[in-house]
Design brief:
The chain is about 20% helix and about 50% strand. With about 80 residues, the protein is of the alpha+beta class.
Length: about 80
Amino acid sequence: MAAKHIASVTKNTRERVVVSLVQRSGQSMIDVRIYDRTGGQEFPSRNGFTLEPSLLQELRAAMDEAIAEAAREGLLP
């Protein structure tokens, strides 16, 4: 199975964070990776991580905590 793009977030003018569903050793995994735009083309970098889908709820909870803390610190509108 080819990687299935799920979502992306622009990080800066050269990079974006891409979330994909991929196959690793016959298992479906979630891949979160920095893609670099160089010379008009985009390539996945070595920066990122892959995790089992069963960990997504835990990751979401961690991100919710990060959002709440950033809001408390006045870092979010």
